[in-house]
Amino acid sequence: MAILGSLNDIKQGLTIIYAGEPCKVVLAKFVRMQQRKPVMQTKLRNLINGKVIEYNFKPGEKVETGDLSNKKASFLYAAGSEYAFMDNETYEQISFTKEKLGEQINFLKEGVEVNLLTFNGQPINIELPAKMNFKITAAAEAVKGDSAQGRVMKTAETETGFNVLVPMFIKEGDIIKINTETGEYVERVTN
User: Fold this and answer.
1) Which of 6, 37, 136, 190 is the most core-located residue (most Cβ within 10 A)?
2) Name one GO cellular component term (predicted).
3) Pick from 47, 28, 186: which is nearest to 127 by CA?
């Protein structure tokens, strides 16, 4: 663990220790208001429970970087509310609850490789690839005249059961790319 020298060292994507727990800096903005000391406004995502915290760091405040490491792991299966992963180096099996993984469960398919986040040697959560491909298993048919008002979207279901808004031209059997952080359609993947 290292202590940051100044507020300017707090950057988006950095992992820091806040209230004794590892947090990822989601947003960092330097703000200087009239007749007040400058602050670094941040949004922090707690890597253990997933909650987002807003906090303003003041000059002189000590900020520790986290002893966080990534390992490659593969998703094996889901059993009830438990999700099992295998460490790709040690072949050790690790499981997380549905509550711990949150919205990430919508994008888990068998064999997908994820980053296993460990804090002080203990697995705390996973990190999905930023964009992933999914097969559409159900999509409503486009009706002539639906697109008269411009870009119209419809709901489609992916192979994992996740419902996503897609353009009207997407049909059942298509492969699409989804942003796993926002849950939004990115593009159709050509075979």
Assistant:
1) 136
2) cytosol
3) 47
Q: pLDDT higher for 179 or 190?
A: 179
Condensed to tens digits (0 to 9), the pLDDT of residues 53-109 reads: 899 988 888 888 877 788 999 999 999 999 999 999 999 999 999 888 888 899 999
Is residue 150 pLDDT above 70, yes or no?
no
Same domain, 117 and 145: no
- What does the alpha-carbon distance between residue 158 and residue 180 come to, in Å, rounded to a whole number? 13
Q: Is residue 93 assigned to a domain?
A: yes
What CATH number does residue 90 fall under?
2.40.50.140
Distance CA 141, CA 161 (A): 18
Q: Read off the tokens for 63.
A: 């900020």
Pairing of β 21-31 and β 39-46: antiparallel
DSSP secondary structure letters along 78-144: EETTEEEEEETTT--EEEEEHHHHGGGGGG--TT-EEEEEEETTEEEEEE--SEEEEEEEEEPPP-T
- In 3D space, the residue among 30, 17, 31, 27 whose CA is nearest the CA of residue 54 turns out to be 27
